[in-house]
């Protein structure tokens, strides 16, 4: 037996095996890594098609603008007109003469001053149509101090509108005006005052409206002057108190059907145009938040519609503190001058579709990793490696490292190809931030795959579930999650709760990258920079912290579940507390189990089985067990299902197998042989009792046993893409073989089992026949000189020549090993096994060497005779006269078989009786044989109830 392999040796063996295995899967890996390239090419093709369409539209638009005096207008008789030819003296680039759609694209060197307005949700069929009575609007408010809020609202809306023609802006600053028009994201004129707009301006009052008004806006260009008449309708602002802001929010969103029309935004047929929360405000503290009706972009706030609200709140508080004579006037708003700009920007398909498609492409790695882990679990490949000495640490390190390497190559290809094709999503965002984000997420994704793999045992189920999660996550994230992020009123804590799900955290990061491409960073340039992580609206820093913490937590939970749920480890749910427990001395454990075994003595009436139990008890009392295998009342019970009772597969087994002995377990199908082997190799845990292998307990020291164990399972557990030589090299390294010793051991194993010649050794195992796979499995179980070997029907599927060669290998190998072998071949059992045990219904019925068993259970000759049907009774009479205690064990169509006790008959007497019978009737065939192991097996396993006593 070689020394246990070190951690480095185990990791080196697994790494070499994985590199070889992945080399055979190079096409699959290349296709996986190139998957994002396919997506990028698809997006690039879509982007190119969009660019072609946009360029064609821009060229057509340029032609129209060139015919319209290069984006400006001609003014005659106070009215703007587009003309093919325009005198320079009449060319005007003033916003009031531009249609709203052209205000952003034309040059505006002298922007107008316009009064600040509120945006009102008014009109749309709710007005009475009477010039004397305008529509009413509703303002909702709440706070901790209702009286304070009511006093402020009482001074917000002045009652009189008195126009001073020489100072129109000053006159309008003393009242509160509103409009139902919203503004574009870039404002260069207020559309409510444009000559192209005929919408009404509204004056808000708290008293009942009685009089409407109007005023003239004067525009000057050169020596010409034009007037724009503006109609002002009075509207009453109803101020209503609500208990909390959540009530206001429900009312706005339409969750209180009693007070407004279906769809929300209405209170008693009056539209809601604003809401204010005074929070904890009082005369010493002024803390207000307010809700505007529309906010389409969380990064853009239309100041022209919010600044009047700020002015109203400020004036109200000043009047509260200093009296009604105090006020702060807000005269006008003016945009900065600007040159001509394109009407529309380039549509970036990566920004529009990136959030959904990029989420999908990155999540595609999750099913790949999960399927690989579940495949190893379902096919017992990992436990096979563990049974030959591979520790958990080496497995986790190498497997995690491989998945991380393939994931980073995947993401590197994703980012590089996107950058090469010029996508702003990749090129504009800082590559350092992208690396940190993708690196953190792929590690989280790998940890999550290890965690989820503990919950699945079937590849198909895991595959379907994983892809449903991938596509479901992408769709939910793309169509639901952004609305929560963009809504400033949605509680931030719930956004954080949603981001705890890794798929939403991934989408949030991609969403932030896209937003910074669209809206720019703090310096005005597109793309995210490191300093932008401190932006209060930037969620990148938050999700990086969440993903980093989850990465560590998921790894720890995954390792815990792996240790608890893995059939190989056999650890209790509280295994991490084992170091704090006071351990019972091994001698005490053995003594206790010996006492338990004595209780079942009265249940055993077979001397050979009782003798084996006594031998086990004696071994357990020794201070150190140097026996190969000692089983002490080993029991396995499978819980009953669907109303069935529990199944006792192994019933209190006592067995001792020393070094140098091959013990054969015989028994019918379902007797419990494979359950016994599964407990001994760590696939399942004993229900009670235990077994000691070289002094180590299979319940607690299984990890230590794996380094000295060899296993040939009932079904071949091989990698189809690895050759026979590569299998043996891997398992030989796990047994701490190195250099020339490893090479020589592999060569000897291949030659001994006839896997060396004809290039068989270097042929992939997937191309082996069934017999070749069995021989390779036997070679794997014997390499590295393990001290204990378990072989579950090793010769299944072998031709006679290969079986004979296999027997020779096992005979040689058993000389310094304890070997337990199960078989259905009596010939194989006699040829290989030093002792045999016949297992029936989970318990040993007999135990001994083949000669002892045949002598004990087969002390008779077997006489077979075939005659015609009318002479069957003559044959029975002849046998009765020859041996009165003979038993008929077989009878069909004139052929009869009898058992003759050896102590009652001589062979010469049998020949004489047959010779005498031939003179009286015709005997077609006859034969006399000694008892075989097959006869013993049939008798012990329950076949003796078919016998018939002739006496």
Automatic annotation (TrEMBL):
<dbReference type="InterPro" id="IPR003593">
    <property type="entry name" value="AAA+_ATPase"/>
</dbReference>
<keyword id="KW-0067">ATP-binding</keyword>
<dbReference type="InterPro" id="IPR003439">
    <property type="entry name" value="ABC_transporter-like_ATP-bd"/>
</dbReference>
<keyword id="KW-0472">Membrane</keyword>
<dbReference type="InterPro" id="IPR026082">
    <property type="entry name" value="ABCA"/>
</dbReference>
<dbReference type="Pfam" id="PF12698">
    <property type="entry name" value="ABC2_membrane_3"/>
</dbReference>
<feature type="transmembrane region" description="Helical">
    <location>
        <begin position="352"/>
        <end position="375"/>
    </location>
</feature>
<dbReference type="InterPro" id="IPR027417">
    <property type="entry name" value="P-loop_NTPase"/>
</dbReference>
<protein>
    <recommendedName>
        <fullName>ABC transporter domain-containing protein</fullName>
    </recommendedName>
</protein>
<feature type="transmembrane region" description="Helical">
    <location>
        <begin position="395"/>
        <end position="423"/>
    </location>
</feature>
<dbReference type="InterPro" id="IPR017871">
    <property type="entry name" value="ABC_transporter-like_CS"/>
</dbReference>
<keyword id="KW-0547">Nucleotide-binding</keyword>
<comment type="similarity">
    <text>Belongs to the ABC transporter superfamily. ABCA family. CPR flippase (TC 3.A.1.211) subfamily.</text>
</comment>
<dbReference type="Pfam" id="PF24526">
    <property type="entry name" value="ABCA12_C"/>
</dbReference>
<dbReference type="Pfam" id="PF00005">
    <property type="entry name" value="ABC_tran"/>
</dbReference>
<keyword id="KW-0812">Transmembrane</keyword>
<feature type="transmembrane region" description="Helical">
    <location>
        <begin position="32"/>
        <end position="50"/>
    </location>
</feature>
<dbReference type="InterPro" id="IPR013525">
    <property type="entry name" value="ABC2_TM"/>
</dbReference>
<feature type="domain" description="ABC transporter">
    <location>
        <begin position="629"/>
        <end position="866"/>
    </location>
</feature>
<keyword id="KW-1133">Transmembrane helix</keyword>
<feature type="transmembrane region" description="Helical">
    <location>
        <begin position="464"/>
        <end position="485"/>
    </location>
</feature>
<feature type="transmembrane region" description="Helical">
    <location>
        <begin position="435"/>
        <end position="457"/>
    </location>
</feature>
